[in-house]
Amino acid sequence: MRQTAVEKIAEAHRVEGPARPLRAGDMVSLRPRHVLTHDNTAAVMAKFAALGGVRVHDPRQPVFALDHDIQNTTAPNLARYAAIEAFAREQGVDFHPAGEGIGHQLMLERGYAVPGALVVASDSHANMYGAVGALGTPVVRTDAAVLWATGTFWWQIPPTVQVVLEGALPEGVTGKDVILALCGLYRRDEVLNAAVEFTGPGVASLDISARMSVANMTTEWGALTGWFPVDGVTLAWLAERQRRLRAMGHERIKDADLVRWRAAPPAPDPDASYAGRITLNLSALVPQVAGPDAVQAVRPVGELAADRVPVQRAYLLSCVNGRLEDLEAAAAALGGHRVAPTVQFYVAAASREVQAAAQASGAWAALERAGALTLPPGCGACIGLGQGLLEAGEVGISATNRNFKGRMGHRDAHVYLASPAVVAASAVAGRIVDGAADQASPAALPYTFERRAAPASESMDEEAELLDGFPGTLTGRLVFLPKDDLNTDGIYGKDHTYRELSAEEMAAVVMENYDPLFVERSHPGDVLVAGRNFGSGSSREQAATALQAHGIRLVVAASFSQTYQRNAFNNGLICIACPELVARLWDETAAEAAAGTPTIVPGGELEVDFVRGTARWGHEAFRFAPLGTVPQALVAAGGIEAQVRTRLSGHATV
To answer: Considering its fold, how many domains does the chain have in total?
Structure first.
């Protein structure tokens, strides 16, 4: 069988799995080139110790970069950072301190992510590495600890969707506009939990920074990874990276690498099998804006500008849009004007190198003259940490990648996403404006989708064979959350992500961003049922473990973010997809859902039979696909930590 680029790269890193060429659906064990952890390294260290870890399996594989909470100079955070640095020094692991840059930017700048490499991170925006032809995909904290201990992790090969880019971007339209346009069509589910491979003549019109923006936000589009082909643009960028790295004393990109990538770049087979094919005409795009409070609510900026939406805060920062090209575009959009007196404009470069380049080009000084409040290179307000967080009732426009309710400040604030130029122009105007207002706004996005292959059969009519220790049945009161795309910020808010809370404390705050009364409305032992793409957004593990702490043993949804499923099964929390049950509940609770009730208890228990693959509510039974042996084994073991401890017991080198 002919393979996609993602399947071929995964196969090149295979340790265990089918001996034949890999294809979508295969469960495999892979050995990635690198695994990035950031501030969550401290949590991974604790998990590594819990596994019995003493020495990291391969010290060249992990990379540590402190980037999320770098404005926090309290004693506990500084102690945490010092402990991470000491552990890196002890283990011989590459360490990048606070202020050096956002981890994903550093993975590309410093040559860790290169064509054909599998590079993962315990952060959901690892997709960004696909900009240079690497296979970048997120893992979770527990996976990272297992990687430190064993060098490998489990992965299911996703279906691949081909995205053909035609034409070229008009002046003033950016890579951010490309991915926002695609996210606006997200609700069709064409790429949910899929790999996305970009191709077509339009790729050549995108510089590497634009490709980074697009690949980064394939996460928000719902994909597991976004991959760009290696072409002349990629090779020129890599050659420049090699020159800079050599000046720093690093040889991560060698002459032989450049020769190899030029002669035989990683690529799909010409007749590879794709689950679908999307075509996007870049020439017809205009600047886009997403929001408020949803990445999928996308409109042309010119259309939204007519609403004269006032803004109080503007943000130019993050791994998706904090590069030199972004800072220069924003500086140009300011037109020499100062930001409106009613607006606070926050700027942070993606790395120290980017900031130095912006200072040399004059862009940094132009932003400062306009009244920008400059912050150190890091995530900051994007993750809801540090200066500039939104207050209740405020509106922000941001060049970040997420605008989930409560993520960048108060849950009663509102956030829109746009390109750096639109953010800067809006900061000057005091309201959302289109920096290219003379461009016509099309009535529909220039997008087509063609399904190329039917999804593989899930054997819905077959009975499952259960492993010892996995429950045959499970029963609990049904609690319905009438919400699609319920993200991890809603399940477990950013205010608690980097706090070490007890199980009791986690249970007390679960779902507070989604429904502050959830803990009162639900009880231990309930079965939680939700809509499509449950657990989208960040890779924070507590979005699974907090539900467990509250006493939830089973989550049913129409579909899940695969990263959320990794977290859930890695911690022994069962997830099943049963879209027919969810559709029935939408019908049954339509009036309450329309009234805005976030947590509904429709009455009755849900009885789940894992052998027959049925979920029975009242007199109706709904089918779901049987769980495979990998998730069953994780649940039966009590989670992957217990599983790996058993596997590694007696190995003194770990």
So the answer is: 3
Q: Quick one: tokens of 263? A: 């002669």
- Separation CA 312–CA 340 (nearest Å): 9
156, 180, 212 - which closes a domain: 156
- Bin 618: left if φ > 0, else alpha if -120 < ψ < 50, else beta: left
Give the pLDDT score at 437: 44
Q: In what order do the strands lie in the sheet with 34-37?
A: 94-96, 62-65, 34-37, 118-121, 135-138
CA angle 194, 195, 196 (to 5 degrees): 115
pLDDT at 444 (0 to 100):
56
Could you give the CA distance from residue 2 to residue 272 in angstroms, rounded to a whole number? 5
Of the candidates 156, 190, 222, which is a domain's last residue?
A: 156
| Same domain, residue pair 504 and 414 | no
The whole-number pLDDT of residue 631 equals 87
CA distance 287 to 419: 8
Over the stretch 466-502, which tens digit does the pLDDT of each residue have?
A: 999 999 999 999 999 999 999 999 999 988 987 889 9
Strand pairing class (344-347; 313-316): parallel
| pLDDT tens digits, 371-398 | 999 999 999 999 999 999 999 999 999 9
CB-CB neighbours of 376 under 10 Å: 17
Give how far the C-alpha of residue 526 lies from the chain's centroid of Cα atoms, to the nearest Å.
28
